Write a sequence for this structure.
C-alpha cells in the first residue's frame, strides 16, 4: 500500500521542527530528529485513520506539547484560559451577548446556507469513477446517426453514448404515464451503473431494441412496493409487452437526475426510422475521454469532425454560407449538469458574505461601544499588573466565545434555511438532494466563526489593550475616546454602503421580475385549464382523429365549459420538459424563409385560448383538400412575406401549397422572457396526428373552475379508458411555474437584502444611542446654557444622516458593477436602472432617518439636572 | 546518570512518565510505538505528543529508569527499555496508586463522596 498523502505534510513537519527547536531546545539537541519523525508518523496515521479529524487531533496534541514549561501548557492551555476568562466576563452581560450572538448567528446562518448549496452543487465532482474524464456534448440534442459518426471518427474518447427521455404509458387499463429513458449501448457502463436486482440490459439488447426494461430503484419501491419478484415480469408499455430485467442500484446518480428529472424505466433506443433520421435531434450524448487526452485536444478533434460533417451534410451541419453550423464541443460533465444554477448561486453567496460583513461590523460596533464603557475596568486590571498580552487574550477570548455561540445559532438557522430552500425551490437547483450541512460545511462554518470572531474582536481588543491606566483613570472613564467614535462612524458608513449594494441588487431583480409579469403573453390564460392525452403508437391517424373529436365533444358537454380546443402544444405546456416539435421554412418566389414553428391545432384552439384571429381560424373542412390552410403569427408573416399583407397569399410548404387564411398577433409558448417565435398553425387532423400526444385547452365560465377541473380526466377516460391521461392543470399555474425560477432567486436576494438593511439600521440606531448616552453631560450643559432642544437634536440628526448619506453615496458607486454581475438573471439587462437606484436610495434615507429619530429625541429631552448629576 | 538513586526518591511519577513506563514494561519499544501504544491503551486520558514524549524519555534516562537499547530496530529508530531500577520504580508506583485507588473507591462506595479521584502526581 502506498503511504497516504497528508495535505501539506512537508509544511507541517518543517513547522513542527522549527517550533520544537524554539520551544524545547534541550529536546531538540538530543532527540530533535526522532521527535519530528514521530510527529510525521502520527500525522500520517491520523490522516489515514480519521482524515481531517485525525489530522486535527494530532496537531492539537502535538502543538499543545510545545508549551514552554514542559508539561501541557501550550497554545491549547492559553486559548482555554482566554476562552474561560472570556466566558466568565460575558456571563455578566447577557443582553449584550445575546444581541451580538444573534447578529453573528444571522450572518453565519445565511452564509452557511448558501455555502452548503455551493458546496453540494458546484464544488463536489459528480459521483462517478473517472468523473474528470466524463464530458457531455453541448448544443442540446444530437441525432443518433451523428453519434454513430462520432464513434467512428473521434479518437479522443474511449466511449460515446447517448440517451433521451420520453413519456410512455405503463399498464393496459387506465395506464399511468411514466418517464422513460431511451439508451444506447455503453451508457450505463460508461457511468459505472450497477443493479440492486437482476442485471443491466446487454449491449446487444440495447443495439437491437429488445423488449427489455430496467427499473429505477425509487420507482420500483413506489410502484411495485419493492417486490423482489419484479425481475423477469412482463409489463405493458404503450400497449406492447416488455420484460423487466433488473433494478438499478439506488446509489447510481443519473446525469439528467442531477438536474432533478429521474427516469422511472430505462429501455433501449428504438430502432424505428424516426429515431434513425438525421433530422431527429433527441439524444443527449456523453463521452469518456481516453486516459491522458486533454479536453482541449478533444474539442479540437470535434471541431474537425464538425467541418467534415458540414461537408457531407451541408443542409444539416452548415449554414447558408456553408460554414459549419453547430458546436459539438464537449464540456466537463460537472459543468454541464450545473449549468444555469452557477451564476445565481455565486451571486447569492456573494450577497450573503456581504450580509455577514455587515453583521460583523455591527458586532464590532457593539463591542467597541462596550469596550469604551469598560476602559476603566481594563485600566484597573492593567494597573493591578495584568500585562497587555493577557488583556488582549481576554478580549479575544470573549470574541471567540461569542463567535462560537454565533456559529451554533448560525448552524441552526442554516438548517432552517436549507429546509426552506428545499420547500421553495421550483426545480431550478440541480443536485439539491446531495446538499447537506455536513462536516465539510460545518468546518467551513467553524473557520468562518473564528475569522469573524477575530475580525470583530481584534480591533476593539487592540484598542482596549493599548489603554494607558493613568490617563483613563484620571478622566474617570466618563468619556469615550474620539478614535472609537470615528471607527464606529466608519463601520456604519460601511454597513450602509453594503446595504445599498444589496438592496440595489435585489431591486434590479424585482424590477426585472415586475417587467416580466407585465409582458403580454398573446393569449388570455384565465380561466383556462389544460389536460393532455397520450396516444400509443398502434393507434393510427384515423383512430386518433376519431378519439380526439369524441373527446372534444365530451369535454364541451361538461357544465361550465365555454370553449374547447386542442393542439400538439398549448402555451407553456413544455416548461421544464424537453422541447419537442416541428419546424420548417416556407418558400415564396424561390426564397425560403427561416424556420417557423409548426403548430398543429384543432378548430377550437384559438377560441379556447383567447387568441384573436384576423381573417378566419381553421375549420373541420380544412382537414381535407390539397392546399394547406394556415394561420400565421406576425413574426412569421414578416419572415415569409416581409411587410406586405399576408391574408389570402400562398407559399410553398414542402410538400404542399399553404394558403394563409388567418393572422394572429403572436403568442409566447416558452415563457415571458422569450421572444415570440415565428409560428404557423395548421390543422391537427390534417398534419398533426403523427404526434403521440394531444393537449386540450378548456375555457370555463368564471366560478366553475373547481368542478370542471375535477370532471376533465373522468370525461376523457370515459371516451377511451386505454389512453394515458395526465392530471389537468390551470394555465395560470403553468405560467407561474415558468416564472418560478426568477421568483425563487428574487425571494432569496430580497430576504438577504432586507436582513442587511435591518442590521444596518439597527447598527445605526445603536451607535447613535450610545453616542447620545455618552454625550449626555455635554448636551445637558448645552441645554442648561440655553441651547434650544431642537439644536441639540439637530446635532444627533446631522451626525446620523451624515453617516447614512456618506454610506449611500459610497454604495451607489458599486451599483453598476452589481448590475453587470447579475447578468442574465435580469430579463432585460439594458432596462434603465435609474428608477431602481432612486427607490433604493430613498428607502435607505427613510430607514436611516427613522433610526436616527429616536436617539435625537432622546438627546433633545436630556434633562440637564440628571445629566450633570450622573458623575 | 545519577549515582544509584533509591526508587522511592523517584515516585510519585507524573501521569505521562507512568504511561511511558507502563508501555515499556512489555519490552523495548521505539518512540512512535510508545505514542501509538499509549493512544491505544489510554486514549485521550493522558495525551502524549512527541515533544513531551522525549522530554519524559530524557528525564527518565537521566534518572536511570530508562535506557536506550542497542541496535534493536532495523530502520535506525532508537528503541528504549526499562532498566532494573525502572522496573522497581514502576512496581512501587503501581503499589502506591493501588492503595490510593482502593481507598478512594471505598470512600466513594461507602459515603458517596463524589467522583474526584486523588491526583497521583
Amino acid at each position: 500500500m502506498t503511504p497516504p498523502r497528508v495535505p501539506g505534510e512537508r509544511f507541517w513537519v518543517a513547522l513542527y521542527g522549527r517550533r520544537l527547536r524554539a520551544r524545547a531546545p534541550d529536546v531538540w539537541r538530543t532527540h530533535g530528529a526522532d521527535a519530528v519523525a514521530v510527529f510525521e508518523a502520527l500525522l500520517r496515521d491520523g490522516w489515514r485513520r480519521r482524515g481531517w479529524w485525525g489530522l486535527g487531533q494530532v496537531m492539537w496534541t502535538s502543538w499543545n506539547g510545545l508549551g514552554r514549561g514542559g508539561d501541557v501548557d501550550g497554545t491549547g492551555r492559553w486559548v482555554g484560559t482566554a476562552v474561560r476568562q472570556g466566558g466568565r466576563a460575558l456571563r455578566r452581560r447577557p443582553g449584550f451577548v445575546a444581541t451580538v450572538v444573534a447578529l453573528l448567528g444571522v450572518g453565519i446562518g445565511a452564509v452557511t446556507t448558501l455555502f452548503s448549496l455551493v458546496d453540494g452543487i458546484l464544488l463536489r465532482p459528480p459521483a462517478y469513477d473517472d468523473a474528470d474524464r466524463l464530458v457531455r456534448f453541448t448544443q442540446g440534442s444530437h441525432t443518433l446517426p451523428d453519434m454513430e459518426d462520432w464513434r467512428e471518427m473521434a479518437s479522443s474518447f474511449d466511449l460515446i453514448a447517448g440517451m433521451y427521455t420520453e413519456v410512455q404509458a405503463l399498464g393496459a387499463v387506465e395506464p399511468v404515464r411514466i418517464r422513460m429513458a431511451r439508451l444506447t449501448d455503453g451508457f450505463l457502463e460508461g457511468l459505472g451503473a450497477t443493479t440492486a436486482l437482476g442485471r443491466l440490459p446487454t449491449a446487444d439488447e440495447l443495439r437491437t431494441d429488445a423488449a427489455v426494461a430496467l427499473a429505477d430503484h425509487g420507482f420500483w419501491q413506489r410502484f411495485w412496493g419493492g417486490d423482489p419478484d419484479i425481475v423477469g415480469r412482463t409489463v405493458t408499455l404503450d400497449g406492447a409487452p416488455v420484460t423487466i430485467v433488473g433494478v438499478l442500484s439506488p446509489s447510481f446518480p443519473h446525469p439528467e437526475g442531477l438536474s432533478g428529472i429521474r427516469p422511472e424505466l430505462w429501455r433501449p433506443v428504438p430502432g424505428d426510422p424516426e429515431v434513425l433520421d438525421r433530422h431527429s435531434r433527441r439524444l443527449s450524448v456523453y463521452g469518456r475521454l481516453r486516459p491522458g487526452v486533454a479536453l482541449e485536444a478533444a474539442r479540437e478533434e470535434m471541431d474537425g469532425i464538425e467541418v467534415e460533417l458540414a461537408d457531407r451534410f451541408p443542409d444539416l451541419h452548415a449554414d447558408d454560407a456553408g460554414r459549419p453550423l453547430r458546436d459539438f464541443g464537449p464540456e466537463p460533465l460537472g459543468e454541464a449538469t450545473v449549468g444555469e444554477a452557477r451564476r445565481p448561486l455565486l451571486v447569492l453567496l456573494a450577497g450573503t458574505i456581504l450580509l455577514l460583513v455587515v453583521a460583523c461590523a455591527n458586532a464590532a460596533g457593539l463591542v467597541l461601544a462596550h469596550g469604551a464603557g469598560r476602559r476603566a475596568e481594563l485600566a484597573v486590571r492593567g494597573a493591578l499588573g495584568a500585562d497587555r498580552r493577557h488583556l488582549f487574550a481576554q478580549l479575544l477570548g470573549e470574541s471567540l466565545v461569542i463567535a462560537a455561540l454565533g456559529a451554533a445559532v448560525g448552524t441552526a438557522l442554516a438548517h432552517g434555511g436549507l429546509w426552506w430552500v428545499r420547500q421553495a425551490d421550483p426545480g431550478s437547483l440541480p443536485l439539491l438532494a446531495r446538499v447537506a450541512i455536513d462536516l465539510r460545511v460545518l468546518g467551513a462554518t467553524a473557520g468562518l466563526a473564528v475569522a469573524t470572531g477575530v475580525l470583530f474582536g481584534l480591533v476593539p481588543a487592540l484598542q482596549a489593550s493599548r489603554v494607558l491606566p493613568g490617563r483613563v483613570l484620571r478622566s474617570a472613564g466618563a468619556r469615550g475616546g474620539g478614535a472609537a467614535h470615528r471607527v464606529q462612524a466608519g463601520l456604519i458608513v460601511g454597513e450602509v454602503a453594503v446595504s445599498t449594494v444589496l438592496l440595489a441588487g435585489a431591486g434590479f431583480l424585482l424590477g426585472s421580475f415586475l417587467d416580466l409579469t407585465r409582458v403580454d403573453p398573446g393569449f388570455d390564460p384565465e380561466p383556462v385549464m389544460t389536460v393532455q392525452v397520450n396516444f400509443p403508437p398502434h393507434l393510427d391517424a384515423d383512430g386518433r382523429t376519431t378519439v380526439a373529436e369524441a373527446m372534444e365533444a365530451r369535454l364541451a358537454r361538461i357544465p361550465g365549459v365555454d370553449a374547447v380546443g386542442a393542439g400538439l402544444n398549448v402555451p407553456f405546456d413544455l416548461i421544464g420538459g424537453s422541447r419537442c416539435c416541428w419546424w420548417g421554412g416556407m418558400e415564396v418566389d424561390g426564397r425560403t424563409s427561416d424556420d417557423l414553428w409548426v403548430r398543429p391545432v384543432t378548430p377550437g384552439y384559438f377560441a379556447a385560448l383567447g387568441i384573436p384571429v384576423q381573417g378566419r381560424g381553421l375549420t373541420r373542412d380544412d382537414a381535407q383538400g390539397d392546399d394547406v390552410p394556415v394561420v400565421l403569427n406576425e413574426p412569421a408573416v414578416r419572415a415569409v412575406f416581409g411587410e406586405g399583407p399576408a391574408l389570402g397569399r400562398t407559399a410553398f410548404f414542402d410538400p404542399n401549397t399553404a394558403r394563409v387564411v388567418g393572422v394572429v398577433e403572436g403568442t409566447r409558448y416558452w415563457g415571458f422572457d422569450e421572444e415570440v417565435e415565428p409560428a404557423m398553425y395548421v390543422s391537427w387532423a390534417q398534419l398533426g396526428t403523427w404526434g403521440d400526444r394531444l393537449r386540450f385547452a378548456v375555457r370555463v365560465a368564471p366560478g366553475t373552475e373547481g368542478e370542471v377541473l375535477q370532471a376533465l380526466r373522468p370525461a376523457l377516460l370515459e371516451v377511451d379508458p386505454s389512453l394515458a391521461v395526465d392530471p389537468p392543470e390551470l394555465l395560470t399555474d403553468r405560467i407561474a411555474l415558468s416564472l418560478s425560477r426568477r421568483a425563487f432567486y428574487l425571494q432569496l436576494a430580497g430576504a438577504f437584502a432586507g436582513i442587511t438593511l435591518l442590521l444596518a439600521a439597527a447598527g445605526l440606531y445603536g451607535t447613535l444611542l450610545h453616542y447620545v448616552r455618552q454625550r449626555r453631560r455635554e448636551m445637558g450643559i448645552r441645554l442648561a446654557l440655553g441651547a434650544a432642544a431642537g439644536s441639540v437634536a439637530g446635532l444627533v440628526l446631522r451626525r446620523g444622516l451624515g453617516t447614512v448619506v456618506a454610506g449611500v453615496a459610497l454604495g451607489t458607486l458599486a451599483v453598476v458593477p452589481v448590475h453587470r454581475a447579475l447578468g442574465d438573471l435580469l430579463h432585460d439587462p439594458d432596462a434603465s436602472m435609474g428608477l431602481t437606484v432612486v427607490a433604493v436610495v430613498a428607502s435607505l434615507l427613510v430607514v436611516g432617518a427613522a433610526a436616527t429619530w429616536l436617539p435625537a429625541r432622546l438627546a433633545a429631552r436630556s434633562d440637564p439636572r440628571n445629566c450633570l448629576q450622573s458623575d | 546518570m545519577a549515582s544509584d538513586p533509591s526508587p522511592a526518591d523517584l515516585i510519585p511519577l507524573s501521569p505521562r512518565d507512568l504511561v511511558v513506563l507502563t508501555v515499556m514494561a512489555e519490552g523495548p519499544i521505539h518512540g512512535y510505538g510508545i505514542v501509538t501504544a499509549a493512544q491505544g491503551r489510554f486514549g485521550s486520558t493522558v495525551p502524549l505528543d512527541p515533544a513531551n514524549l522525549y522530554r519524559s524519555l530524557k528525564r527518565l534516562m537521566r534518572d536511570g529508569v530508562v535506557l536506550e537499547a542497542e541496535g534493536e530496530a532495523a530502520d535506525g529508530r532508537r528503541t528504549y527499555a526499562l532498566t532494573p531500577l525502572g522496573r522497581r520504580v514502576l512496581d512501587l508506583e503501581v503499589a502506591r496508586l493501588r492503595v490510593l485507588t482502593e481507598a478512594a473507591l471505598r470512600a466513594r462506595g461507602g459515603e458517596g463522596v463524589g467522583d474526584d479521584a486523588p491526583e497521583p502526581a
In short: The interface with chain A takes residues 14, 16, 31-32, 35-36, 47-55, 57-58, 77-78 of chain B (CB under 8 Å). Strands of chain B lie at 29-30, 66-69, 79-82.
